Fold each of these.
Amino acid sequence: MTKEAIVQVHDLSKVYEMGEVRVEALRSVDLSIYEGEMMVLLGASGSGKSTLLNIIGGLDRATSGTVRYRDRDLTSADDKTLTLYRRSSVGFVFQFYNLIPSLTARENVSLVSDIAPDPMPADVALELVGLQDRLDHFPAQLSGGEQQRVAIARAVAKQPELLLCDEPTGALDAETGKLVLRVLDKVNRETGITMAIITHNVAIAAIGDRVVRMSSGEIHYIEENAVRASIDDVEW
């Protein structure tokens, strides 16, 4: 059965103007993201991939073109509508973990309970990412990989339909990065959350259902992987 596109981007452009400098971050981008897939956005720094993900996630607005989530037009949405969209439908994982130092892992994840309509219990989310034995540890007591897994648990605990990951392994060494990728792979397979992962690492592309290659604000190719590669085959 053909999967449904939950996000549809059409003719999307984003221009930043700083005085006399005009930067075209995105140029007429067309892209669909399908229900339940793990999509990898691949490109060098400055290729436009973070700008695209920020617009899809409702963190930024396009200069022209359209972004639709299900039956909603996000490009014409007001700030309140975008806030509700981010709160209920989208989870974010960034390169840096953005944990609150004075809160334990459990408390950091529990923060979403105040904003999500149907949150997953923090203990359940942390068990999903393999941190059931670190619930009451503070960020300073956790390794970088463990902190990133707490950040993933926090995003997943919202039970979003869409999880957007911007260089989630960018601050980690190779082995720790693979561990985080295993967690993301597990979350996608076990929960069905649709996932888009930004990376500049070509090897990571093989673990996704599709790879979208970006350069100079444009999509240069979209390739489907017949079989998702094992995380153990990823080489930094």
Amino acid sequence: MGIIKSRKTNRKTSPVSHKPQSDYIVQASIWVEKDGELYLGGGRIMLLENIDKLGSISAAARSMGLGYRNAWLWINSMNRLAPSPLVLKVKGGPGGGYAQVTEEGFKAISYYKHLKEKMAICLDSLESG
């Protein structure tokens, strides 16, 4: 059996794993780029999901151990690369501000999860192949 190696990158993404034999583990990470820029990856999807759950960029970032500035840079990048914004930020007032994931953001989450499922199927097929 040959060993399958993937290209190593500095990006932190959530790997999909498969263990074809007790000695080998095949892993793959998936991300989506547009024009050579990172659009979606595991961390960005987690940020979107946490914004939806917590209603706040700062709370979502804190829950991930991510600085607010980095979270905001990720959101700006995704919003710029997407057909329409994935996150809308409403400035604070007497009741405070909030952030919300848009319909386009939920489509991006769904698309990424679909890609991960397809990747898992591919890895599972390695065992039978």
Amino acid sequence: MYTVFIIGNIASGKSTASRYLESRGAFRIDLDQMAKDLYQPGSEIVQRLAEEFGWDVLNADGEVRTGVLAARAFATPEDTARLNNIVHPVLMQRLSDMLVTPFCTAGYAAPVLSVVEISVAADFVEAFNMADEVLAVTAPLELRRERAIARGMSADDFDARASRQPSEEELQALATTVIDNTAADDGLFRELDAWLADRGLSDMRRPR
């Protein structure tokens, strides 16, 4: 099984790329969603979050109030490190299990390609050794801003989120392969088709 991590800043086309590869037959993992799935009421990780950031980060049903947690956990770099120290070890183990264990123990063949979509790449560099390749999907800041606003995000919201993300140059430095998504979907799909062909992965749906 070939494993690629896909990284990219907001409105870069990262999610579009991940879903396109999924449509071609890849097994896709959304790391953001996996992290949210850890926040189960009564779980050890939720207990630790409440102890660290205050019990009022939970509602009356014991569910994480994500807005309250985010306000506290991202207030300073030190607070973010506290959050990461709780969540990341569990998330990394879950990711490793998702990539390896189900296919080894369930008695069926692993997918030809696994795709892991990662929104905050710099926070997960320690996981990159699980991948055969790290692919960055990039586009200029102003173009990404236009795209985000066109799909309903406010300009202020985009600017606030983008300010907390690395520059395109910094993001590319984390990757082994870079795809320029300035041309948007059709151009992106052609680039991804070429990427698949270069790695002999064009026929993922064909039995092997």
Amino acid sequence: MMIERQIGEKIKNLRNQNGLTQEELADRTELTKGFISQLERGLTAPSVSTLADIVECLGTNLSDFFHEEDDIQIIFPKEDCFEKEDEDGNFITWLVATAQSRSIEPILVNLQPKQTLPEDKPHEGEEFGYVLEGKIKVHYGDKTYTAEAGDSFIYPANRRHKISSASKTKSTFLWISSPPSF
């Protein structure tokens, strides 16, 4: 689509959102109704200063007028999750397959009794978790904390840390790292 047509369509949409007729917009911008009509149909292109006046009258600015919305994925169906089972029967599910492009990495962990996840070395960012089922131990530096279903934890990741089971049954927790670590 030609740029003139795209600009025209955006102006027409903004004009309609503002409840203005072509004539009312023309009056506010000191342009003619014919020019606004040609502009909206992509038959002419305005100067930068004229376009700035038009979009200002329509309640926006040139930066916002030309800003394109990113088409980002909002919902991540379970089929898109990546799941890994280790040799001890622990399941780690990466809930957002494209987490490397985000500032957080949400993971669902099913930890079997008497199991410990590998220790994380100190790194930038924070770790957050919410225990959904069972009981876990959070080993942070030289201290150990216990969290059970309904409890949450958060800590800066600048110390050694790991999580182990403290339950006789499976423990499940949501674990969120910021930034994602790979």
